[in-house]
UniProtKB/TrEMBL annotation:
This is AAA family ATPase. Keywords: DNA replication, DNA-binding. Residues 8-113 form the DNA helicase DnaB-like N-terminal domain. InterPro entries: DNA_heli_DnaB-like_N_sf, DNA_helicase_DnaB-like_N, DNA_helicase_N/primase_C, P-loop_NTPase. The keyword DNA-binding applies. The keyword DNA-binding applies. It comes from Blastococcus carthaginiensis. Pfam families: AAA_25, DnaB. It comes from the Bacteria.
């Protein structure tokens, strides 16, 4: 059996060739993509590159004589080179052996390849260390998850210095690009990858509203205007609180009404019951949720309540759990493009007249995170007295909307065949129907 080839951690020849070229053309030092950390420290290559960059920035050149003075000033000249070939002699050898500037990309790539190999090796060693030294499997999996994130960054990192950076560009070019049509999930209300957090008191009907939204979307009806046909969407309803039998009874009426109207959710509406909750801070549960989304491919995921989607840990700050939850959701929406409808609670008491406050319970992280932060509550005056019928609710905001959308002005319980009926002011309703027409026209274009 042939012994495996051992590749040196640094490509010293490529580093020497690169540095020799950069002494001649230091203006290419930034764009070549090589940084001091990519270079062999045992030969002083990082210090030499830093001196080249600093000298060019200050003097517009990296002339060898000036470079020698710069290294002496930094007391780094004797670090440059190896063995008997150090300092000025090593610098002379680099300049004498310098290639044509046109070959800089080749040598820079060889240097960066060596760096990426070292990083992969370090991550692999870290995986071995954590698997063999940690008794607690949860700690092993958490450490492995962090290392895999690092590995993903290494894999995605461009090797070439002039490789494009996703999302980076000139504003003048950006604003002149044609805008694509809205990628609606609920026309006029929710686009793909939006994050919506709906909060309210216990028993206010948040979970019922989520069921209605998921059902009508899958049936091809607008959730806030059920008589209006729209393109059917795929939905996933994740209940982290109610047992399956209770959820089944709650869904029968809504799904049954859809069937009575001659339409169907077909294979577009999925549900997942986890009454004990999940922990999106744990790699196993994050992977399980990703598998569920991979299998169902929803346009909208409704999940809640949020406090049952992560578990506290020793040493947590006030924002640790919510921030980890948010990071997990952000990863999934970026990966799959689905919107998230997240149910959460309001604190008890201390509003006007003993009514509930309108902000989310727990961390202030929730105030900054979603695109739309909605509070489902009954309208009250400053003394806490109801100003409308007990079945009338308004959608207030616990944070400003990031874009103007046609959310209902009011929601009314039990006013139609469905649990919730949306009430719109005329102008807002007109905007909603404009979005529906836009989405339906896009569907015709696709066909």
């Amino acid at each position: 059996m042939t012994a495996p080839t051992t590749i040196a951690p640094h490509n010293v020849d490529a580093e020497r060739a690169l540095l020799g070229i950069l002494i001649e053309v230091p203006q290419l030092a930034e764009s070549c993509g090589v940084r001091p950390g990519d270079l062999d420290s045992s030969r002083g290559h990082p210090e030499l590159l830093s001196a080249i960059q600093a000298l060019f920035e200050d003097k517009g050149t990296a002339d060898p004589v000036l470079l020698l003075d710069e290294l002496r000033r930094r007391d780094q000249l004797n670090r440059i080179g190896d063995g008997d070939h150090r300092g000025a002699l090593y610098l002379h050898e680099l300049v004498s052996a310098a290639r044509q500037p046109g070959s800089i990309g080749h040598f820079a790539r060889l240097v960066r390849e060596a760096t990426l190999r070292r990083q992969v090796q370090e991550i692999g060693a870290g995986l071995v260390r954590t698997a063999t030294s940690q008794a607690d499997l949860d700690v092993v999996l958490d450490n492995a998850s962090e290392l895999l994130v690092r590995l993903g960054l290494v894999v995605d990192e461009p090797i070439d210095g002039d490789a494009p950076i996703p999302g980076l560009g000139l504003v003048s070019d950006f604003v002149n690009e044609p805008s694509p049509p809205h990628s609606w999930v609920i026309p006029g209300v929710i686009e793909r990858a939006d994050r919506i957090m709906l909060i309210g008191g216990e028993g206010s009907g948040k979970s019922v509203l989520a069921r209605q939204v998921c059902t009508l979307l899958a049936a091809g009806r607008h959730p806030f205007a059920p008589k209006v046909k729209i393109r059917p969407r795929r939905t996933l309803l994740i209940d982290l609180e109610n047992p399956p039998d209770l959820m089944r009874r709650g869904l029968r009426g809504i799904v049954g009404q859809v069937w009575n109207e001659g339409v169907d959710v077909e294979d577009r509406f999925w549900r997942w019951n986890r009454p004990g909750g999940i922990d999106l801070r744990a790699p196993a549960d994050r992977a399980l949720l990703a598998q569920a989304i991979e299998k169902t491919r929803p346009d909208l995921v409704a999940i809640g309540p949020a406090y049952k989607a992560f578990r506290p840990r020793s040493g947590d700050t006030h924002e640790s759990g919510p921030a980890d939850f948010g990071a997990a959701i952000d990863h999934l929406r970026e990966r799959y493009g689905c919107a998230f409808w997240i149910e959460h609670h309001t604190p008890k008491g201390d509003g006007a007249g003993g009514s509930r406050r309108g902000d989310p319970i727990g961390s202030s992280y929730w105030l900054r995170w979603p695109e739309f932060g909605l509070t489902l509550r009954q309208p009250r005056d400053e003394r806490g007295h109801l100003t409308a019928e007990p079945n009338v609710y308004v959608l207030q905001r616990f944070r400003g909307d990031r874009e103007s959308r046609s959310w209902p002005d009011r929601l009314i319980k039990g006013a139609s065949q469905y649990p919730w009926t949306a009430d719109y002011d005329p102008e807002n309703r007109a905007n909603l129907f404009d979005a529906v027409e836009e989405d339906n026209a896009l569907a015709l274009d696709i066909l």
